[in-house]
Design a protein that fits this description.
- The protein has 210 residues and is of the alpha/beta class.
- Helix 3 links the parallel strand 1 and strand 2.
- The chain binds cobalt (II) ion.
- The site of cobalt (II) ion has 7 residues, from helix 5.
């Protein structure tokens, strides 16, 4: 059997199981979505947001890219953020990094020139540069890697606060809260790194006149 057939068969089983528990299940899904959460995670196949949080279809609006980056020039990410905050009115935005992140690791070293990925890594190298003195205190490669994973999550949470989309929603609606988490592949646990509640963030350099 072709590998992909396995996925289609599993889908049939999943749909059947759902209907056995609740025959109206798909009518509910088709009616629309009103998720409380926006998830910004890594594209890594080992960090599936629904599965590791025990959530269901309809619970989380998702954007994933390599190393969970808030990019101010990425129309894809900005569209997701805008729609989640302004239309879906999510209550929380979760930035979720993970230890063992290949994108973060690549940013600590040299990559081949010319690829799209090498350009994307500028986002991460900028964070490495800011925190280089702290990161380079660690002598073990693994510790340097883990620390940049954590600092990247915290910086991306700050980057969310720097967008006009989030600042406007804070001003008029006192939401969303911004949460920074990291996932440990070795034990499956999520750890909280940072939480920014609306109205508790101060940064004159990035503040918009609203
Ligand atoms: Co990753």
């Amino acid at each position: 059997m072709e590998d992909y057939r396995r996925l289609l068969l599993a889908n049939r089983m999943w749909a059947k199981d759902k209907l056995e528990v609740d025959e109206q299940y798909f009518d509910g899904l088709a009616r629309g979505q009103s998720p409380d959460f926006l998830w910004l995670g890594c594209s890594d196949s080992r960090v599936p947001p629904d599965e590791i949080t025990g959530t269901s279809p309809g619970d989380i609006f998702v954007h994933r890219n390599i190393a969970n980056v808030v990019s101010f020039t990425d129309f894809n990410f900005l569209s997701v953020l805008e729609y989640a905050v302004e239309t879906l009115k999510v209550k929380h935005i979760i930035v979720c990094g993970h230890y063992g992140c290949g994108g973060v690791h690549a940013a600590l070293g040299s990559s081949k020139p010319g690829s799209f990925l090498s350009k994307w890594l500028y986002n991460l190298k900028a964070i490495y540069k800011i925190h280089k003195s702290e990161i380079d205190l660690h002598t073990h490669e693994r510790q340097r890697w883990d620390r940049l994973v954590e600092l990247n999550v915290m910086e991306q949470v700050q980057n969310l606060a720097r967008t006009s989309i989030v600042q406007r929603a804070w001003e008029i609606d006192q939401r969303p809260a911004l949460l920074g988490w990291v996932f440990n592949l070795h034990d499956g646990q999520l750890r909280e790194l940072v939480e920014v509640q609306p109205g508790t963030w101060e940064d004159d350099v990035y503040r918009f006149e609203l």
